[in-house]
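I would love for you to help me understand the pair of lines that follows before we discuss the fold together.
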Amino acid sequence: MDPRIQYCVTQIEHKILHESTEHNTHDALIQDLASQIGLTRFHLARLFQKYLQLSPRDYIHRSLMGRCALVIAHTSQPIFSIAIDTGFSSQQAFTRAFTHYWGISPHKFRDAHCRYAAQYARRLGEGARTRPSIAPVIEHLGQVSFWAVRYEGMSFERHACWNDFARLCDPLAPEIRKGPYFGLTYDTPMFVPATLMRYYCGIRASGNPGQRPDGAFEIALPEGRVASVQGDFLMGEIPGIYDELLNSWLPTSGYTLSAACFVEQFYELPRHWDEHRTPMKLSCWIQRLH
């Protein structure tokens, strides 16, 4: 993919999904991105269509609908409040957009997820669990800046992303390669088709931009309260941990999600993560229920 488009989608995913959710500023964001990479909006739109088969506005909208699904499913925030927070002019306008994208209204989407969570808890109560219950630690995550490369593909192939990122890190200085490393995702298999997984592999940024891995962009994670699960895990176990964290622990925790993304912290580069257990910490941003 053209590195200019890589930069744009990185900025869109980080700003729209993690920071800004103002639907009515999309035109301003598109213009700002076009200016940053030295293109007109027309040429930016042509590149988006070439590489993503979507216009910039449609890509932003797709990303925003993914965030809305997580918020509706995993928070008790009123639909009207979600509509206003995401910049829609009314709850009706938001409902039309959400229903057109997902094929189901926001209220029915929330009801369906509540039924899923109840069935999940019932299965665990009936002894369907295959491993001990997770016990997240509530802690404060300080602001972190890291150099990240964006990947898109199958959710069960994240190990291949890390194997490729390891190749990009091999030429780096030893003091940079010592990590830590970060995986960042905005998608969970429950809401996003596996082939649309967006995943970032990254390493803590140093003060010298010349040491940045090829194709990487700097991303800053905000500080905040997180729920963290720590252990030695295989890549194939991670979807189950997400599922238990979101659908078993979160509903009874007294907390709700505060950001629609998840960060994985590694103490060593997770080469061949599909074959070898790797020490890691998985965290999601949370806030207390009011």
